[in-house]
Amino acid sequence: MFVTIAKLLVKRLLTAIPILLIVSALLFCILRVLPVDPAAMSMPPNATVEEIEAMRKEMGFDRPLIEQYGIWLVKLLHGDIGRSIHFRQDVSSLIGSTLPATIELAVLAMVVATVFGLAGGLFLFYVRGTRAEAVMDFLSILLLSLPEFLWSLFLLLIFGVFFNLLPFTGRLSPGFERPMMTGFLLLDSLITGNIAVFWDAIKHMILPSLALGIALSPSLMRVLRSSLLDAYQDDYIQQARLRGLSEKRILIRHALKNAILPTLSLMGVQFGFLFGGTLLVELIYSYPGMGNLMVDAIRNADLPIIQGAGLTYCVAVLVINTVVDSLYLILNPKLTAR
């Protein structure tokens, strides 16, 4: 088992290298051909043409594109992602300060999606063949048709504005001092024993994580229901019934174990999209994550941040897929024999 997982990790690492090179080259080239002038945008409004040309030369935009990419790639391999044109800070520090917030939000949203998705899928399977099945099918399709930004607005207006039950801006309420250790607010508050900060941070994350999680859960429900229906057509289900096993045990101990594998694959794919799709939700809730950083970077044509954030999202998706494949091997040991 561990040998197979280690081989998978090595294989994914070797595969990740050309993928990252291709993504970095595409990002670099596409951003350079856009009709924007980062050099001009980094200068004051009263800057002269000569000053702008000098800045363009200093930033290396006067060199051939392939040479610009080569210089940037060498710096990247040495850990230098670049310096923000707008914020005048290293891109690595900006990403390092916002990435933990997005990771925490994405993980909590995935927990919400998993709970709703698995519970809803089991309920859809339970009501199969009854009148409630058509109603639940309609509700799941309705939920599936609503994107996360609409859920964000609905939840904000209902629970944030109308009932005023939960905060809906920022990451912490005024008056709380943020502990700085790992960069992950929830983890740092637990390490320092500051439970008040922990619960306040959770309150700020409830609405955006619900918006993201609810939007993802219907597809999990439907895939799990379909997988369970397929599993119940197999012979081992009939054999389990002949042995006198209860329907509950057959579902939990046998059918669900096999039906969860396609759902797990979908969860991995969705988590990758979720990590990169927090932008609008972070913007709506003024959540200080990478989504807000990307919006500022796009607004100011801050190419170094866009390139760094794009590569970060790519690395995150590769890591998520590797983790999902490893879980696949753990849950289905038969794959280790291949």
From TrEMBL:
It holds the Pfam family BPD_transp_1. Keywords: Cell membrane, Membrane, Transmembrane, Transmembrane helix, Transport. GO terms for biological process: transmembrane transport. The chain crosses the membrane at residues 12-34, 105-129, 149-168, 180-199, 259-285, 305-331. Residues 99-324 form the ABC transmembrane type-1 domain. SUPFAM superfamilies: MetI-like (SSF161098). It is a multi-pass membrane protein. One of its GO terms (cellular component) is plasma membrane. Signal peptide: none annotated. It is found in: Cell membrane. InterPro entries: BPD_transp_1_N (IPR045621), MetI-like (IPR000515), MetI-like_sf (IPR035906). Belongs to the binding-protein-dependent transport system permease family. PANTHER family: DIPEPTIDE TRANSPORT SYSTEM PERMEASE PROTEIN DPPB-RELATED (PTHR43163:SF6). This is Peptide/nickel transport system permease protein. The lineage of its organism: Bacteria, Pseudomonadati, Pseudomonadota, Alphaproteobacteria, Hyphomicrobiales.
